[in-house]
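Re: that chain you flagged

S.,

Sorry for the slow reply, it's been a week of failed gels. I finally had a moment to sit down with the sequence you sent. For the record, here it is as I used it:
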Amino acid sequence: MTRTLVLVRHGQSEWNLKNLFTGWKDPDLTEKGEEEAHLAGKRLKKYGLHFGTAFTSELFRAQRTLSIIMNELDQTHVPVIRNIALNERDYGDLTGLNKDDARAKWGEEQVHVWRRSYDIAPPGGESLRDTGARVWPYYIHHILPKVLSGDNVIVAAHGNSLRALIMALDGLSPDEIVAQELGTGVPIVYRLNGDSTVAEKTVLSS
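Prediction finished late last night. Pasting the structure tokens below so you have them in one place:
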């Protein structure tokens, strides 16, 4: 199988478990998050993929998820490229706050707007559009050329950096992409045409 791109959101992190806005902070995976990463690796192994390059963010939870997956695949030799462009959305002043405490401080409606709008950023942070503005050029210049050359590529990253990629790959509108939920540790397998459009998409959720 050629021209294959796999996207995986990191497994559950300690701050996911505590219901905190994580952003660019760097908590580790929980035990459940590790299990999710192992399961992602097992599902990809069953799917029979062999990778030429792996990409991940500068954040530990994504790097650790990738490491667990590649160990499950017996493909620890695959080169890993880390880049800040794939980091989670920066939540600015919300970072580190419990989501319920944020609602108490700013109001449920305002926090919902910050979390679920496409182009409205929380104070000091990034909107999904801002996140896309760094993710899309990196994809076009660094990830896509490897896929189109026939490499199978895996990207282990975050809910919002991957949403930005999925928006471009699936041709989704701003309203459609903010409604998308990405499961932790669930691989999404794309097979691309030679012109970079999507030929096939498979979600390995079982």
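What I noticed first: The chain has one domain: 4-203.

Talk soon,
D.
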